[in-house]
Amino acid sequence: MNISVASGKGGTGKTMVATSLALAILNDQPVQLLDCDVEEPNAHLFIRQDAIKSTNVSLPIPQVDYDKCQYCGKCAEVCRFKAIAFLKKTLVIFPDVCHSCSACWHFCPSGALVPAPRKVGTVNIGRSGELKLITGRLNLGIHASPPVIKAVRNTAEKEIITIIDGPPGSSCPVMAAVEGTDYCLLVTEPTPFGLNDLSLAVDMLNVLKVPYGVIINRDVPGSEIIDRYCQEKGIRILLRIPLQMEIARSYSRGITLVEHDSAWTERFAELFRQVRREVAK
Amino acid sequence: MMIAISAFGKNQDSGVNPRLGRCEYFVLYDTGTGQYSAIENSGRLSPGAAGIATATLLNDQQVQAVITGNIGPNAYKGLEAAGIKVYIGVSGKVKDVVESYQKGLLSEASAPNVGPHGR
User: Disulfide engineering: A167 pairs with which of A15, A37, A135, A243, CB 3.0-4.6 Å?
Assistant: First the structure.
């Protein structure tokens, strides 16, 4: 079973939920946690682990053999991303704009364009007891994170319980992290900003047809902004984490919620059982 | 020699648009004849990589110098490859900017001065 964690707004507690959920259910079965927030992976700060393996993620981008190039312009013509420009009989390639679609080298009539690997990130595998942590890391200066997110997911074992800590937002990177998962936990906070981005994430999940429920973090008694929205939309609220200085203080020291207070272990185990029931429906 | 100025409008009284890749028009000035003309910047409608599309457009128009406010990395790389000079940090009306250019008062860019998407 694959459970993804998303939020819309950043900084609402995705990693706090993902790490505590993984640790809470670990006693019953092996678990793998995928850190797919590859622009700023941080689950490893909370899970002390032994490094097992690190692999590079590369994408093919065109390389020109200027001796073979006939300057016909076919490659620039077929590139829908404008990653190749013909300027005064010079062929200029823009690697950041290239989507590795392969059209240019496929259509080049003189064999002057060949794919060459460009490193865009790494996938690191670590282990902490029965918990396997797979972390994606996008290289500095690289724009597109979905290829690294997909590499993390492809590295994961298929048959064990998988928790995916996703990136914020509701665009391509999140979609790459949550698409095809069995359930998505949407972590939000009771603020107008939290609500706005939650509603965008809900719209996204409806398009992807991934079932979801809401977790309210930094919950304050009497704040009903998220409750009202969820009631109106018929969305289940699965868990509430209160706004507490002690929780924030522990977390800032790298201590997960279940380690901070063992009462949370049962709450997250119950969250998992609820999700499993929902998925089984 | 043909120079291009990124502009909000189509003539010498138009204001200079500080954005190169997404400007509405390029006012063209022929230093040989002293004539103004204008082209629409089709590159600005590009969903991404407007700077590359704009550099290609200016190259195809045989432009030899571009005057604008800011230039990003892709547009700069393209214009540099095409051998087109870039003058940045400019504002005001097109005709005043042309006058400054002719007096040699404009500064030539040796690198992009903004990031992708003008940020």
Answer: A37
